[in-house]
Amino acid sequence: MMVLCNFWFASLAFGISQVAHGCRMMLLPSGRGLEGLEVMKSARGMAVGVLVLVGGLSGPALGQSASEADQKAVGQKNESVRKQKEGLLPPKEALEQKDTDIAPDAYQPKGVDLGAFLLMPKMELDVARNSNIYATNYDAKHDIISTYRPELALNSRFDRHAINALGRVERKEFVTFDKESVTNGLAQLSGRYDVTDRDALNASLTYTHDHEDRGSFDDAGGLRPTEFHYLTLNGSGAFSIGNLTSSLGVTAVKRDWEDTRTSAGITPSHFRNRNELDVTLRESYEFIPGYSWVNEGTLLWRVYQHDADQFGIGRDSSGLRLGTGIGLDISELVRGDFLAGYMRQNYKDERLSDPSGYYVKARLNWSPSKLTTIIPTLERSIEETTANNVSALIRTAVSVTVRHELQRNLILGSTLSYSRDEQKGGNLEADTYEGVVRATYLFNRNLYSSLELGEKHKLTNVDGNGFNQTTAMLRLGLQY
To answer: Which region ranges are annotated with the description Disordered (predicted)?
Structure first.
């Protein structure tokens, strides 16, 4: 059985790759397309891919009736999916879900049974077009990008406690501007220790290898995207006594950037390397069922690996955030917080001004029906930057994410967001508007496809820093 499953999975992957390769070549700009014999080869590859896909889809996954699939899928749904359906998932975790995660049981992957663990393999292939890959406001360059994203998750199935592991590799290939091609990766190990039915200890260790987005405030404008590495340790614990719930969370992050080669030489991005530590204490008292009074305080430390950056400025700092407000936990309807308070960051170097002001954080997971989820967020925060003579960015960000099950296997989603960034100690102000709409169709529990359209506009008070960007993406996904 395992041999047949592996052969089926491999044949589908081969078929998708052939179809995607043919589509990608047909989408090349004029002058870079295929002619003559090469067109025939590309068409032949697409035909082979389609045949293999059809053969794979006509296998066991589509051979069973809907009722049989439902029966076999009982109990296979991911725990977070079940919680989201019952309106119990915190907003942060709901935001991290993908549209495919909220599909019915019959369209959830079964995984490979390893006894106390479940192995969940996945492969995604994206073909996208970006109208402005360098995020510039003049002479915009467009390109076709192919992304290959294999993923492997190992989830425990203990009655109590949990141990999970996740590994993901992402390869982005640009057709024309191949210097933009990058390889990213993520590895994560997480666990939960259940003290009681209500109290638990959580921990996770995550390694991230990625590249900085073009158009970000700290983009060095390199010949290639700036490479960075993050190592993140998260730990938290929650304990309840009656209607009072106390929680303590610790987040430690080691951030490292590689130096960036530009047309003018080398930009020393390693001066941005730093260690971050956040410690958060949260107290929540439920005074009415479903309604709580929440108080939250966070201490923050930022310690750079160099005493001074390339401009001779020391950037070590410490800060705090204090918030109080209302927490909601109304089963099957809404869950989240609305907090308001004060924030401040103090820098050791007296040449940097200390940002401070009001603090706001609101996140809600609202389920007006079993088929629709709405997640609004609002936050005002202090963000790190290494721009010359600028101490920090004051960011105000608002977003709304909507997911709707139009049919059992057709899920619609959209995200609208707005952010305003103001330099503390500098003159730059930026407003960024972004919208994404997508549709995901699940053929069965093993194969799905998504279509996504995106628009992004950045407006600034400094000439040359804004840009417009349009993206379109087609995704094919395999999961077992």
So the answer is: 65-88
**pLDDT tens digits for range 219-253:** 888 889 999 999 999 999 999 999 999 999 999 99
Nearest to 245 by CA among 280, 279, 278, 282: 282
pTM: 0.80
Model confidence at 198, in pLDDT bands (50, 70, 90)?
A: confident
What integer pLDDT is reported at residue 83 of this predicted model? Answer: 54
What does the block give as tokens for 4?
A: 């047949």
Distance CA 282, CA 228 (A): 32
3-state SS track over 252-282 = EEEEEECCEEECCEEECHHHHCEEEEEEEEE
Residue 120 DSSP label: E
Contact by Cβ (8 Å): 378, 390: no
- 342 and 356 Cβ atoms separated by less than 8 Å: yes
CB 411 within 8 A of CB 449: no
Average pLDDT rounded to a whole number, residues 104-118 = 92
Between β-strands 182-194 and 334-347, what pairing exists: parallel, antiparallel or unpaired? Answer: unpaired
**How far is Cα 213 from Cα 436, in angstroms, rounded to an integer?**
17
Q: Tell me phi and psi for residue 116, to 5 degrees.
A: -80, -5
Burial status of residue 339 (CB atoms within 10 A of its CB: 0-12, 13-18, 19 or more): buried
| CB contact at 8 A, 49 and 17 | yes
- Tell me the torsion sign for CA atoms 37, 43, 46, 51: negative
Bridge partners of 298, per DSSP, are 280, 321
* Cβ-based neighbours of 247, under 8 Å, separated by 6 or more: 236, 237, 238, 239, 280, 281, 282, 284
d(CA 263, CA 241): 61
The whole-angstrom distance between residue 431's C-alpha and the CA centroid of its chain comes to 21
37-57 vs 2-26: helix crossing angle, rounded to 10: 150
Q: How many CB atoms are located within 10 Å of the residue 42 CB?
A: 19
At 392, the amino acid letter reads A
CB atoms under 10 Å from CB of 298, counted, come to 18
Asked whether 151 and 178 are in contact (CB, 8 A), the reply is no
Element (H, E) at 456: strand 447-460
Whole-number Å distance between alpha carbons of 172 and 143 = 12
39, pLDDT greater than 70: no
